[in-house]
Amino acid sequence: MPKPSKTKTDYLAKLAPDAYYHVYNRTNNRETLFHDDEDRLFFLEQYKRFVAPYVDTYAYCLIPNHFHLMVRIKPVTVLIALTKQIPEPQRTAPQRRILAQKEEESDFHPLIERQFTRMFTAYAMYFNRRYHRSGNLFYRPFKRVAVDDEEHLQWLVYYIHHNPCKHGVMEDFLHYPWSSYLSLLTQKPTTLLRQAVWELFGSKANFVAFHEVKEPQKPEKWDLDMED
Description:
The chain is α+β, with helices and mostly antiparallel strands and 228 residues long. The protein has one domain: Alpha-Beta Plaits (2-Layer Sandwich). The protein is built from eight helices and four strands, in the order βαββαααβαααα. It has helices at 37-51, 76-85, 93-100, 109-130, 150-166, 181-185, 194-201, 204-212; strands at 20-26, 55-63, 66-73, 143-147. β2 (55-63) and β3 form a beta hairpin. α1 (37-51) packs antiparallel against α4 (109-130) and α7 packs across α8 (204-212). The longest helix is centred in the middle third of the chain and has 22 residues, at 109-130.
């Protein structure tokens, strides 16, 4: 029996605490998103500023016209504590609503979605200034797919790290500097959930071995529309 086709809402999952997501986005009309390392560094700085405090980052990859992330939204207590630390005049509307609601009734999706939007806006403003460009840069709305099983999580990490090969950016993903793969292998300080990623595969050795497989079996829930 063929798998049921996915609907638009399957790629616009509601963002909730403690849940895993594949987040990805590209430019309008597949324009170039990163022209050089300065662009890539600025994008990561905005991610660190606006999004990273609210999520645990497991994997990422920056490709010339799009990016991929695997994240887990932080727990409710952390999200509320972060929001309380922001001076009241600087709080966004979603941040104010979170603090006004009862914890058990809170809807955290607008809060997390707004942080991603703030990141996109900051990068687009920088990009448009630098390249004398105007108008929207990113495709809207950005895609996010909920991931709820271990097999899918493993494949997603593999897919993100192999993305440079898929798009012909590099023949060997092992040497691509703008993904999380090399950082996950080292012992250097990182904000990535390195140990958690290794444990997802059972060990660091299994993590490496899985990535060396040319074409591991895709999980049943994987869909080609999740790819970019």
